[in-house]
Write a structure and sequence with these properties.
Rna Polymerase Sigma Factor, Chain: A; Arc Repressor Mutant, subunit A; 2 domains
Length: about 160
Amino acid sequence: MKTLESKFDKIYKSNYAKVHRLCMGYTNGDEMLSADLAQEVFIKIWEHIGTFRNESSVSTWIYRITVNTCLMSLRKKKPVEISNLLNVMESTDDSFQEENKSIQLKQLYNCINTLNSDGKSIILLELEGLPQKEIADVMGISHEAIRVRIHRIKEKLTKCVKK
């Protein structure tokens, strides 16, 4: 049991920030909901850590659990509207640039929210900096298909943000 606890502790410490950021993308920046989802992800990891078969990397397994947990949460509820991202970003009064950045981030979240669930998962993993081959493993589709989808999603998001 001690080895499972230390393994989990290591996984938690090295992956919590990534999982939380990915959850933030699914919840349109809702800090409280993202923290709840991240906690749910790590509960699932704890429950299944003994059955992990090393058929993929641990990070791929964790991202798959995160994507599934977030998608299940969104299916259970009406999609969360963006809660005031200016508060989330803690924009300062003295900086127009910070406010402009927050507005752009809000627009990006709005545009990401228009994507289908697969597109949303793919772009959030891409924005997290996951290698495209790992995204392909997480999504269960070929690397070439991921490359094409990412390109199309980026074009769609660019058009949406510019509107």
